[in-house]
Sequence to fold (137 residues):
Amino acid sequence: MQLLILNGPNLNLLGQRETSIYGNQDFNSFFNELKSQFPTLQLEYFQSNVEGEIINKLQEVGFSYDGIILNAGAYTHTSVAIGDCIKAITSPVIEVHISNTFSRETFRHQSYISPNAKGVIIGFGLQSYTLALQSFL
Fold:
């Protein structure tokens, strides 16, 4: 099973930014743990701070991969284009958020991704990604 984990803006700063919300672990070390935990899966990781690069990656893999785990960061709440892209591709997408977006600022309660996602996992820290992987098994 081939799966992509796709992270959006500022998630390259995990372990450094707002550790009270996002924790102390950087994503690369967490991704290595996921690969060890799920050795039978073909896991790929991509991160970009650029909306167009996220869309390009979704289009690149969105017709051939078995699934995509997407944390679009702040683009979740602003990008109609990413929402439209998810609607256009055939690979199922699980929307993931590390924090509970509903316990944060009101603008974070809206998602342009959720209506076209297979499911949404919110608020379990980095374990949100583990839960998303398990949902594909």
